[in-house]
Amino acid sequence: MPRGDLDAPEPLGNDPSGYGWKVLRERTPKLITEVRDRHPYGPEQRRALDALREEIASGPMRPLGEDAPDRARWDRWGAAYFDRPWADAPFLWWESYFYRRLLGAVGFFTPGPWYWVDPFEYWKAAELRDATVAVPAAEERQALLLASLWGNQADLGFLFGAAGDLDASGGLVADDGALVWSALDAGGPHHVGVVADNAGRELLADLLLIDHLLRTGLAVTVTLHLKPHPYYVSDATTADLVACLRRLAAADGEAAAVERRLSEAIGGGRLRLRAHAFSCAPWSYHRMPADLAEEFGGHTLTIMKGDLNYRRLVGDRAWPATTPFAEVTAYFPGPVAALRTLKSDVVTGVDAATLSSLDASGGDWRTGGTHGLIQARL
Ligand SMILES: O=P(O)(O)OC[C@@]1(O)O[C@H](CO)[C@@H](O)[C@@H]1O
């Protein structure tokens, strides 16, 4: 951690008063049930899903099965948490492991009929079908940034939570938008990294922003970091990117032109795709491997999308909300900006006056998805 491990606050856990507890006790079992109900899985998968739900509720956390291709890695990562209750592991850690276990239970990594069949595709496809494709005018670049930020509300994990309709009425708790644009306007050539979050509506908005950066020459290259496999229900994989591009191509007018430009940019190497294994690891970016650090270090700006990437960027810890974002992210190997709707407890870089009015509002501004932020360390 930037201030040294000893100075950093504790990782957020699963205290009954915290958000992690709700996810562990409410969202996770519902998600298992939904996945089970929406697929014609055989008895083996149904048993595995039921056993996983039971294990999370009351059993000790088990390691991966003997034949799992990534067993050795998870054994190393999970040594401190296996054979203890799930609630003993940090929230950031166990939730990532949960998605790995869910994929294991449905046979995603096992050659056979369900090999590489995305258990969340049902919801992702429905959301993409219903998404409207509105292309803001190119000169409205702040609108593109905000669309990408609020697109982050389209997090299908919320389907399984207690949240009601999402709205953006809370506005931004921090807004470094002008800083981001002035950094891109100055200097160059810019090589921008976009660390994607959700598929569907959010990724469509991200693609419009990326198209703007490339088309205007603000960025010479953009590297889009996707997930190597399904994760957190709606996180974007390469298959989801392809679905979004097809959706753009099928829409009228400017949207189809955006698709043509982006596909050409991919073909020509100006829009590069990455799906690093660490993108589904249960750790914050403080522990990223050297090759990924080198990649981020080569971006003149890395844009981190969404709530989980924010948690991983600042470390999912009980930071006082006024702790400067620049201080907490000083370790990151290059300029970095976060576009996020707030959907979990952690936050940094909120000024004291804003914080006291947010706290006085009595709402769940940290977790309800009604507030957003644009923060940058350049
Ligand atoms: O990264 P995203 O899609 O914006 O949000 C992921 C999320 O919904 O999942 C976790 C709870 O399940 C929280 O980190 C966060 O609220």
Can you characterise this structure?
Its cofactor is Mn(2+). It comes from Actinoallomurus iriomotensis. Residues 24-351 form the Damage-control phosphatase ARMT1-like metal-binding domain. Belongs to the damage-control phosphatase family. Sugar phosphate phosphatase III subfamily. This protein is of the alpha/beta class and 378 residues long. It folds into 2 domains: 19-117, Transcription Elongation Factor S-II, Chain A (Up-down Bundle), CATH 1.20.930; 122-377, Uncharacterised protein PF01937, DUF89, domain 3 (Rossmann fold), CATH 3.40.50.10880. It is built from 14 helices and 7 strands. It has a 7-stranded mixed β-sheet, sandwiched between helices. The relative contact order is 0.14. The model has no long low-confidence stretch (mean pLDDT 93). The structure holds 1-O-phosphono-beta-D-fructofuranose. 1-O-phosphono-beta-D-fructofuranose is lined by residues 23, 27, 95, 152, 155, 157, 197-198, 232, 306-308, 311, 343-344.
How many helical stretches? Answer: 14
Name of the level-1 CATH class of the largest domain: Alpha Beta
- Element-by-element helix/strand order: HHHHHHEHEHEHHEHEHHEHE
Q: Which homologous superfamily in CATH is the superfamily of the largest domain?
A: Uncharacterised protein PF01937, DUF89, domain 3
Number of domains: 2
Cofactor: Mn(2+)
Domain Damage-control phosphatase ARMT1-like metal-binding: 24-351
Family: Belongs to the damage-control phosphatase family. Sugar phosphate phosphatase III subfamily.
Pfam family, one: ARMT1-like_dom
How does the SSE layout of this entry go?
Layout: H1 19-37, H2 43-58, H3 71-78, H4 91-105, H5 121-130, H6 141-150, E1 171-175, H7 177-185, E2 191-195, H8 201-215, E3 221-225, H9 238-250, H10 254-268, E4 271-274, H11 290-297, E5 301-305, H12 306-314, H13 325-328, E6 336-341, H14 352-360, E7 371-377
Parallel strand pairs: 1-7, 2-3, 2-5, 3-4, 5-6
Antiparallel strand pairs: 6-7
